[in-house]
Amino acid sequence: MSASAVDDAGAPNTPGVLDSTHVVWEKSIYKNWWHNTHEKASTPLAFSNAAGRFSHPKLPFKTLYLGSDSITCFWESGLGRDLVKRFPTDRTISEDDLIARIEYAVSLNSTGLLLFNANDSAARRKIGARSIACFQADHAVSRQWAHALFSAGAHGILYSSTRSGGTCLALFESTATFRGLASPRLVRQCYEDAPLLASLFREGVRLL
Question: pTM of the prediction?
Answer without folding.
Answer: 0.91
